[in-house]
Amino acid sequence: MSDPETDASETGDGDRGPTVVLLDVLPNGRPDDDRPAHRKSPVAYGLEAEDFRLYELALSESSDASVSDRLDLDGPSVGRYREVEFDDLTRNAAAEIEYAVDDIVDADERRFVDFYNEAGPITLRLHRLNLLPGIGKKLRNNILDERKRGPFETFEEVSERVSGLHRPREVIVERIVEEIREDDLKYRTFVGTEE
């Protein structure tokens, strides 16, 4: 998205925009907005489900959205939206990130299991699998050896086939949350990688 603030109606009828999981909903607008209450519109913060970008959304007055709902950014409930940084979120939105990431990973398990099947090297000495918390050289090599025998189908299968990797889903969730919160990471695998 080239424009930092986009009017949802500008994208056309056939285009469905990204889907966000709502992290916080402020029905009376932002608390730091000094305008009178009747001039404020409802605001929400959301986490985009595909590449985990954070957004602030101006909701329509008729919107009946709540935390953990999924909304299309270009749908009728959203007037405008803009991408924001982690530090721009409300405390409630920041606290909901891990739950939202958990829901996104659960809803699209195959996509994240495929990370274990397809992750490749970054440099001669660093592999994408090593970016996951708790995965060192030995565990990485176990994963690589097992995936040569055949692709993983589920997180449960990853856990069963790779000795020492007991929580493959939680490891992915932890890395995604770290990438959302830390803006100065050298390598990113999940957040903001889609263009």
Descriptive account of the structure:
With 195 residues, the chain is of the alpha+beta class. It is built from five helices and six strands. The protein has helices at 91-107, 109-118, 137-149, 155-161, 168-181, and strands at 5-7, 19-26, 43-48, 54-59, 70-72, 78-84. Strands 1-6-4-3-2-5 form a six-stranded antiparallel beta sheet. Strand 3 and strand 4 (54-59) form a beta hairpin. Helix 1 runs antiparallel to helix 5 (168-181). The longest helix has 17 residues, at 91-107. It is elongated and about 60 Å long. It starts with a strand and ends in a 14-residue tail after the last helix.
What attributes characterize this protein structure?
195 residues, alpha+beta, 6-stranded antiparallel β-sheet, 17% strand
How is this structure best summarized?
By secondary structure, this protein is of the alpha+beta class.
Task: Please render the helix and strand layout as text.
Elements: E1 5-7, E2 19-26, E3 43-48, E4 54-59, E5 70-72, E6 78-84, H1 91-107, H2 109-118, H3 137-149, H4 155-161, H5 168-181
Antiparallel strand pairs: 1-6, 2-3, 2-5, 3-4, 4-6
